[in-house]
Amino acid sequence: MKIKSLVVDDEPLAREGIAEYVSETPFLELVGTCKNALEASEMLKQQSVDLLLLDIHMPRISGIEFLKSLSNPPMIIFTTAFREYALEGFELDVLDYLVKPISFQRFLKAANKASEQFELKQNLRSEDVTLKDDSFFIKSDGKYIRIHFDEVLFIEGLKDYVFIHTQTTRHLTLISLKNVEKLLPDHRFMRVHRSFIAALPFVEQMDGNQLKIREHVIPVSKNLREEVYQKLVGNKLWKR
Question: Are residues 15 and 59 both part of a single domain?
Fold first, then answer.
């Protein structure tokens, strides 16, 4: 499986050069290039991205500011012409820090780090979540726990982990919300917020940008509100 990679850089030559490096690396797949953080933000909403090659020094929103704004960021490799940003970059738990001009050899070293982490995450996810018809297993606290789909109220994302809230308890396991979404039956579950997936049969009330599920209230993203309304209420609304 190739690592889906997005290049973000305001300098056209740097952007094209890094994109070319990505295309030449067999285990990377270039899914797009962006010239600023706003374009990248839109791209992340539309496209699954595993690796972000992110320039730090950009107008309006810097790469560091953009990274801090992401609730569930992909793997990050910073690129910049300024060495002084390196310390802050590594404090943000990025994979690597490439100083321009970037040689292909140095780029490949960083890409190999991404490949190692990607493979590790894929292995953990395949171990931690195994689907079984009307139920699935997770690994939590060293134990394999079966959870039935009809027990789940909602799922809450927290970086590389999720809390699975059931009717009786909640479980923490290592998997991203994005990957959980791919594994769930979409007739029963829906992504309603960047940090939440709701079990539609348990939604008792929709009030503006909030859903009430039992004693819980979870948010609905403004850009998803209409889609949530249509799937949840839609033609089920009784009216004159």
Answer: yes
User: What gap in Å lies between CA 100 and CA 54, rounded to an integer?
Assistant: 12
- 108, 126, 144 - which closes a domain: 126
Q: Which range marks the domain in which residue 145 is found?
A: 133-236
Question: Per the structure block, which two tokens stand in for 167?
Answer: 């009717």
Q: Residue 100 and residue 64: Cα distance in Å, rounded?
A: 17
The CATH number covering residue 18 comes to 3.40.50.2300
Question: Phi and psi (nearest 5°) for 35?
Answer: -100, -5
- List helix spans (H) across the chain: 12-24, 37-46, 63-69, 86-91, 104-128, 177-183, 225-232
- The half-sphere exposure of 151 on its side-chain side, counting CA atoms within 13 A, is 15
pLDDT for the residue numbered 132: 47
* pTM of structure: 0.54
Residues 6 or more apart in contact with residue 59 via CB below 8 angstroms = 10, 36
Q: In terms of domains, do 211 and 156 share one?
A: yes
